[in-house]
Specification:
By secondary structure, this protein is an alpha+beta fold.
Length: 723
């Protein structure tokens, strides 16, 4: 459709994504459409009929330098109408292909400030997801201070359909916290304080919907992802910010549209700015953005495919070995040779393939404020830790140890003797958190220190698995050798990623688990490198079920490590529940297996054996939630992993709601498979034990599984086949 204000249209359809760009008569590049459906003529006309709105909005990138006027309405701290963002003019566009898929490169320039912005959109063949980054270069003659730059910006997220945004727009995201990980909820815009109350001709509220992290625990409050659906148009946008530190996602309004802006650190939210001397550049953190129908499971399926594509190729995610870890509801950081040996025997007998000695192996007593040198404690291991790791290998398992390399305790002798530039500094002093200092990975001496530890545990102790924990939050950053404390933090985080890359280059088969007080750094800057992620430190197996059910939305199933820890005083149903928590993800076995009854040990062994039968499907399966995402108070929970002709269901009943005394749950299955297929259902785990506690039937005409649990706390694995 012609427009008097648009000189050039750029229309692209790729991997199920419809894009529409326009170059205005003022030679400015605009992004008008990003959707799973084409742009309608009516929508196109509406977008381009108001010259003022067209001039003010629809930028591809928001870029803000200090000291330049922002003439248009922005109202509050919103990251819109940025300068030179609104002044950028179109230079060129490249449309190429590589081994991954299509690549679009956009080049823009502002003559006044000298800002040159190159934006790259990398498509991934086989998924409707694009990975995006922008680089801004100062080609002027003066130093420019960069306060904000978006990795993705899109105005018009609500434009499809006729209904008010109040009635059709929904935002789904995950609240996150220690022992409360992956708590997904869905909200309308009014529920988040953003009702459509302004005249539709010129909205300018000061309110924003913000999902933000400031600091080194990237997911201490939220996962860096979201799902935005238009229920009227049946379209959706999903995203993840791939950064291991400060990040910002924002939704608000501009003129008569709403926008989504994604970025790394910002000055307003994260105490970040970067001075760019003439010739210097800054590159944003990457983000991934995709489109789908208004179906959360389908969107997460696309995101799962993408996550597998960007992940480091490794044997761990290919083989999915079973891990025993001695910590949770077991030794709790108090390992000794005497305690470990019977656990090693029991873990091997149960079928575990890795055995991890968790915290405490390096100190005789209380160790929290003295960590940092990572030398074995001969009080705990009189014959040396290698005696234990050798014993682990003799039982056919690969040994592992716990480390927390990014910190040093305030009473660590090495920390006392190290210079201050080893650590984060603010206001001229070392940054404290929980009696620890934060190491600065920009310092080559720090890299030498951590490399020595890795080399020693691998080559001297014979370790093939490291649980890499991180239990502090050093805050806004470090002032040392940085324009801002946020810039110091960002540079450290990028140095940490580079160090990880070097470790895996040297030890490609070393398995390193990402742990941060459980799941407080579940981000795909780290998970594109680490093969496995601790999902939680949750100690209550009933509470853990909510986390386990929702986990495949936050990360791939094969990277999601879930504890199974049968209790000393538990029974068969408790053991089954614990196993079911982990069996469709990655089994992190724990608990005092050597002290369980033979019947309960048999249930653990059966669960692990069945897991080994299905793990080749887990690594390629896509997630689904047949009765919805889990709530912390839900009585019934159900998660599914599905392949082309098979699905696995984890079904739970919990004692969480005193007013809910239902025993039966109906689980729809028709949507799991494309086409009209005949379905069959069987109870997969446990196959023979405790049959009297569950009844199930399959309504073939409706394709509904009916499960009746006779006890208040139960769980089972079902297998669905399609023909």
């Amino acid at each position: 459709m012609a427009s008097e204000y648009i000189n050039q249209w750029i229309r692209i359809e790729e991997d199920g994504i419809y894009l529409v760009f326009g170059v205005t008569k003022e030679n400015q590049l605009k992004l008008f459409h990003f959707s799973v459906k084409p742009l309608s003529e009516q929508e196109e006309k509406k977008l381009t009929e108001n010259e003022t709105f067209l001039q003010e909005g629809f930028q591809l990138v928001q870029v803000n330098f200090s000291g330049y006027n922002r003439p248009y309405e922005k109202h509050g701290n919103k990251h819109i109408v940025t300068a030179p963002g609104y002044m950028l003019t179109f230079v060129d566009m490249k449309d190429e292909r590589n081994e991954t898929g299509r690549v679009l490169t956009f080049i823009q320039k502002d003559e006044e400030t000298g800002a040159r912005v190159v934006t790259t959109w990398q498509f991934y063949q086989g998924t409707s997801t694009i990975r995006m980054q922008s680089e801004v270069t100062n080609e002027g003659t003066e130093v420019q201070t960069l306060e904000y730059i978006s990795s993705f910006y899109y105005l018009g997220i609500e434009k499809e359909g006729e209904m008010s945004s109040d009635d059709k727009m929904q935002l789904t995201f995950a609240h996150n916290g220690w022992q409360k990980e992956m708590n997904f909820h869905t909200y309308s815009f009014p529920a988040l304080g953003l009702p459509q109350t302004q005249p539709t001709v010129y909205q300018r509220t000061s309110k924003t919907i913000e999902l933000t992290n400031t600091g080194n625990w990237s997911t201490k409050e939220y996962l860096p992802m979201g799902y935005l659906s238009n229920e009227e148009a049946c379209t959706a946008i999903y995203w993840q910010i791939e950064h291991n530190g400060s990040w910002h996602a924002e939704i608000s309004d501009q003129n008569d549209h709403f926008y989504l802006a994604l970025s790394g650190p910002t000055e307003v939210q994260s105490h970040w700015f970067q001075n760019l001397k003439p010739g210097e550049s800054f590159t944003t953190v990457p983000v991934a953005v995709g489109v789908s129908d208004a179906d959360f499971a389908k969107a997460m399926g696309q995101l799962t495919k993408y996550r597998r594509m960007i992940r480091r190729v490794n044997k761990d995610d290919e083989n999915l070995p079973v891990i025993f870890n001695d910590y949770m509801n077991c030794l709790f950081g108090d390992p000794t040779t005497e305690k470990e040996l019977p656990l090693i025997d029991a873990a091997a007998e149960a079928g575990c393939e890795y055995y991890v000695i968790d915290a405490g192996w390096y100190a005789p007593g209380l160790w929290w404020d003295s960590v940092g040198e990572w030398q074995e404690s001969r009080e705990r291991f009189p014959g040396g830790i290698k005696e234990v790791t050798d014993y682990i290998r003799s039982k056919g398992m690969v040994p592992g140890v716990w480390l927390e390399l990014e910190v040093m305790g305030i009473n660590c002798e090495k920390a006392k003797n190290a210079p201050d530039d080893w650590f984060f500094i603010r206001h001229g002093k070392r940054v404290f958190d929980r009696s620890r200092y934060q190491l600065d990975f920009r310092n080559p001496a720090v890299i030498d220190h951590v490399n020595e530890v890795i080399d020693r545990v691998v080559n001297e102790y014979g370790v093939g698995y490291i649980k890499m924990d991180y239990n502090i939050e050093p805050g806004i950053g470090t002032e040392l050798d940085a324009d801002s404390v946020g810039a110091g933090l960002l540079a450290h985080e990028r140095a940490y990623l580079a160090w990880l890359d070097s470790v895996f280059k040297k030890y490609p088969d070393l398995v390193i688990e990402n742990c941060s007080s459980g799941g407080l750094r579940i981000d795909y800057a780290l998970l594109s490198r680490y093969s496995i992620q601790s999902t939680s430190d949750q100690e209550d197996y009933q509470n853990y079920a909510s986390i386990a059910v929702n986990a495949p939305a936050g990360l791939t199933p094969e990277q999601a490590a879930v504890w199974s820890y049968p209790q000393r005083n538990g029974d068969e149903e408790e053991t089954i529940f614990n196993m079911v928590n982990a069996m469709l993800l990655r089994i992190h076995q724990s608990g005092h297996l050597a002290e369980l009854s033979p019947e309960r040990v048999a249930l653990v062994k059966e669960g692990i054996a069945y897991y080994k039968e299905i793990r080749s499907d887990i690594k390629k399966a896509l997630p689904d939630w047949p009765i919805g995402l889990a709530d912390t108070r839900s009585t019934f929970l159900c998660s599914a992993l599905k392949t082309e002709n098979k699905a696995y269901l984890a079904v739970f009943r919990r004692d969480k709601d005193e007013e809910d005394d239902r025993t039966m749950v109906r689980i729809p299955l028709a949507h799991l498979f494309e086409g009209e297929k005949k379905l069959g259902v069987k109870l997969a785990y446990p196959q023979t034990a405790m049959k009297e506690n569950v009844e199930y039937s399959f309504e073939a005409d409706r394709k509904v599984l009916v499960v009746d649990f006779k006890k208040k706390v139960m769980a089972r694995i079902f297998e669905v086949t399609a023909e």
